[in-house]
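[Archive record]
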Amino acid sequence: MKDIKSLARRGFKNTESYMPAPPGDGIKLDANESPWNLPENIRRKLIRWIEDAENLNRYPDTDNTVLRGSIARHWGVSPSNVTCGVGSDQLIDMICRVFLEPGDCIATFKPTFGMYAAAAALNHARAVSVPAGYDMDAARELLRAAADNDAKIMFLCSPNNPTGRAMSDDATAHVLENAECVVVLDEAYADFKGTSFVSRISKYPNSIVIRTFSKAYGLAGIRVGCAIASEEAIELINIAKPPFNIPTISQLLAEWAMDEAGEFASRAKSLAGARDRLMKALGSIDWLDAEPSDANFVLLTSRFDIASVLASGGIRARDFGIQDGIRRVRLTVGTDEENKKVGDLLCAVRLK
């Protein structure tokens, strides 16, 4: 009998999968999650639904009709401009399935969200990247890389993960106006900056904006994301959409969250303030640098082992290891109490 590995798709065994933060104990500041649970009124709605209307013996609405309507009303678009996926991850894969032929290419920045390259590889394509940047020069360099490699899709994460910086509106518009390919704007962290390109999708029909309920809405556990684009683009993406992909409870919680968009916007603003206070505290530490951030996390760099220092105080951060002698750690902004513990711990370290 053949070894099952020998039957795998050629090249598949060498494909690197995207690895999220591993489980573990301690103060969890390693996955860019919200530090707050459900608002009380949404919690009460969920309890009432379970008591009075629970129907989990039935398949969910495969078209996410009510949820798409809620998202469309919030953004001032038509429901036909919206589709939903299991987090941003499934949407990224669906987009790759639609637009990539074997041997095709995507273009993006580096470092950035690892799912872009992983989804491209799983769809028989490759990724090219340029150093992450945020101004017009970076936009031009990304466009050149896409053109030189005949890229079919460009992924632009803004604010970028893990660097935290957002590309300027002018630079983003320049990419959209000059790209000869599909441009996916991943706005997973845009709520923390308060900007979005959703209102411009009619001007840029080659654009697809991805949003998520996992970050500012604090609903990482329900795994819901949405893509907002032209009706033609949404029709194509829906071809790759599995039936019944969003569970009933996830759809309901996302719908109710849209009803409380103002509450979640206030939470995002509060987290942005906590981020700025944390950045100020970290700015006094001479053995590490905290990169400017427009998101709900900060990227720390140092010649020293930041992750081990944090772990010694029971704080979990995302460790990206060493490159060119520099260690990089991504730290989620938590509650004021958690952030104070981070600041106190790092400030107390005296390194020679």
Remarks:
- The chain has eleven helices and 13 strands.
- The chain has a mean pLDDT of 94.
- The chain has two domains: 4-37+263-347, 56-260.
